[in-house]
Automatic annotation (TrEMBL):
Protein name: Beta-ketoacyl-[acyl-carrier-protein] synthase III
EC numbers for this chain: 2.3.1.180
Compartmental location: Cytoplasm
Domain notes from UniProt: The last Arg residue of the ACP-binding site is essential for the weak association between ACP/AcpP and FabH.
Underlying gene: fabH
Length: 348
């Protein structure tokens, strides 16, 4: 006899209830980057729009930055840490394969025993995490879910790579997602194009950067090889990524608007992944966004913080009054994989 499984019951919808961010105290201007590459401040600004970025110090770990951002988001949402039923952390710069950094963060914020796991979706990670959180709440597995995007990309930056040395920054952004009686997170348009995975990648794998002899191998041979391998860094084919982002991601953003039933004229805020100012401006033009739409341009002072860039930009817009609670915002992330995720949300 087949047992009848009781259906799960969650909230009818989900929404972002609070947001928080953490930027490391050290601000790094382009002049400091120019010590390592043959370039100029004018060239960096014209190509990327970046003037400064934040780099984490020894005490500003992935965990520490996440805890700071999470605490602000929880307070902003008006709940207690004990009410958190899920912690999702998106990062590519936590260097331990296991355990997930989400479990450590959950413990440090006093969340009790929530579901806790990491995801690796590069610069689209926040969108992936937001979608998973929405699913948990609507499905009934958790009432409140903490989504964190956090990176210490300075640890993965090759300062002698003229194409990427100036791009990356560090930081953490977090949101609390909770129940809603009306739609406040639209359908997600997400996907991947693995045939382009070579365009953004880590230079060498951790298995190649091994500090102990391989089983059955010659220890001296392994150590000699290690001396020839530089610490892994992120590299990319800039022009290929730029073309993909400009031409393909505008289509994804438009699809997210269409699926949510929102027109460009209905939109209040546009928060794209903070990869490059030229990409952002091109997407605004292609989408034909009205001048009334506030556009996040946090990349100028924060750089590319990958999974942290969207929540950090969201937090700054709300904190400075450029956006307000209840505004309708289009968010889209895209990056290594190549992966992407876009949705329309109501700001907390």
């Amino acid at each position: 006899m087949t047992a009848k499984i009781r259906p799960s019951k969650g909230a009818p919808y989900a929404r972002i209830l609070g947001v928080g961010g953490y930027r490391p105290t050290r601000v790094v201007p382009n002049e400091e980057i120019l010590k390592y590459i043959d370039s100029s401040d004018e060239w960096i600004r014209s190509r990327s729009g970046i003037a400064t970025r934040h780099w984490a110090g020894p005490e500003e770990t992935v965990s520490a930055m996440s805890v700071e951002a999470a605490g602000k988001a929880i307070a902003d949402a008006g709940i207690t840490p004990e009410q958190i039923g899920g912690v999702i952390v998106s990062t590519v710069s936590h260097f331990k394969q296991t355990p997930a950094i989400a479990t450590e963060i959950a413990h440090k914020i006093g969340a009790g025993k929530p579901a806790a796991f990491d995801i690796s979706a590069g610069c689209a990670g926040f969108g992936y995490g937001l979608t998973l959180a929405k699913g948990l709440i609507v499905e009934g597995s958790a009432e409140y879910v903490l989504v964190i995007g956090v990176e210490r990309l300075s640890d993965l930056t090759d300062l002698e790579d003229r194409a990427t040395a100036f791009l990356f920054g560090d930081g953490a952004g977090a949101v609390v997602v909770g129940p809603s009686q009306e739609p406040a997170i639209g359908p997600t348009v997400w996907g991947s194009e693995g045939d382009k995975s070579h365009t953004i990648k880590q230079t060498v794998g951790w298995d190649e950067y091994r500090t102990t002899p391989l089983p059955g191998g010659d220890g001296d041979e392994v150590r000699q090889t290690l001396e020839e391998i530089r610490f892994p860094a992120i590299t990319q084919e800039g022009q290929a990524v730029f073309r993909w982002a400009v031409f393909e991601m505008a289509k994804v953003a438009q699809q997210a608007l269409d699926d949510a039933g929102v027109s460009p004229e209905d939109l209040d805020v546009f928060i794209p992944h903070q990869a490059n100012m030229r990409i952002i401006d091109s997407m605004v033009k292609t989408l034909k966004l009205p001048e009334s739409v506030t556009v996040a341009r946090d990349v100028e002072t924060t750089g590319n913080t990958s999974a942290a860039s969207i929540p950090l930009a969201m937090e700054r817009l709300l904190a400075t009054g450029q956006a307000k609670s209840g505004d309708t915002a289009l968010v889209i992330g895209f990056g290594a994989g190549l992966v992407y995720a876009a949705t329309v949300v109501t700001l907390p």
